[in-house]
Amino acid sequence: MTALICVMYVLVTLDAAFSGICAASGRNALIRKRGYYLRSMWHGTLWGQAAVLLGLVLVTVTVQFSPNRLQAMAETQAAGWRMATVYSIYAVVVMSTFLIRAWPSVDVRSITSTVGFGPLTLIRPVVIILGIVYAAFSRPGTSILAVTIALGLMMIPFRVFLNVVFARLPVYGDPCGTSQEVTTDP
Q1: pLDDT for 73-121, tens place per residue?
Q2: What is the predicted pLDDT for the residue at 182?
Q3: HSE (CB half, 13 Å, CA atoms) of 101?
Q4: Which residues have CB under 8 Å from 66's CB, separation 6+?
Q5: Contacts for 144 with CB less than 8 Å, ≥ 6 apart
Q6: How far is residue 20's CA from residue 165's CA, in Å, rounded to a whole number?
Q7: What DSSP state is assigned to residue 116?
Q8: Residue 124 CB: number of other CB atoms within 10 A?
Q9: 140: which of 75, 112, 125, 149 fits an S-S bond (Cβ 3.0–4.6 Å)?
Q10: Mean pLDDT lowest for which of 12-16, 23-27, 61-65, 147-151?
């Protein structure tokens, strides 16, 4: 169970960090945006930790209040590993796109944004739903299935949530950045 928790933690944290980049995209007119995107990843990661904690609480409470804890634990593991499989494949594709983007060519970077990250952002909710459906094929009990669906439904609108949060933060609200960023960003 510890391995599953670790894998899901890494996957949710990566998703939250990349959701931070996605939510911050297009909000800053600076040319050198490294600090801006690192800050957006950090904010996404921090909010993602709240989602991780809520998910862990939901799973723990469901297993603890189950009439048969051992069966609930086994069902949770089976469903969790199925979800982790789907989400890991998606994470590998996203990370591969980042590796391609590391090539020092403006053309390659532009292509990865359009051909890679655009469609990957678009299919993210579908991937989350596929993970839930694949987990459902492990035939978990009703309570475990409900938690699985709740966790997925919590993560689907995560980027929309970050868009709302970032719209209220001054550092993301000004399209030209703060005067300090404009003068000190290398």
Answers
A1: 999 999 999 999 999 999 999 999 989 888 888 888 888 888 888 888 8
A2: 46
A3: 15
A4: 72, 141, 143
A5: 62, 72, 75, 76, 79
A6: 10
A7: I
A8: 20
A9: 75
A10: 23-27
Average of per-residue pLDDT values in the chain: 87
**Residues near 6 by beta carbon (within 8 Å), at least 6 away in sequence:** none
> What is the model's pLDDT at position 25?
78
CB proximity list for 23: less than 8 A, separation 6 or greater = 40, 44, 159, 162, 163, 165, 166
| In the chain, where the domains are located | 2-173
Give the dihedral of Cα atoms 18, 27, 181, 50; nearest 10 deg: -40
Closest CA to 140 of 155, 151, 156: 151
Q: How much of the chain exceeds pLDDT 90, in percent?
A: 54
Find the radius of gyration of the CA atoms of the chain.
Answer: 19
**CB burial string 94-116: b at 16+ within 10 A, e below:** beebeeebeeeeeeeeeebeeeb
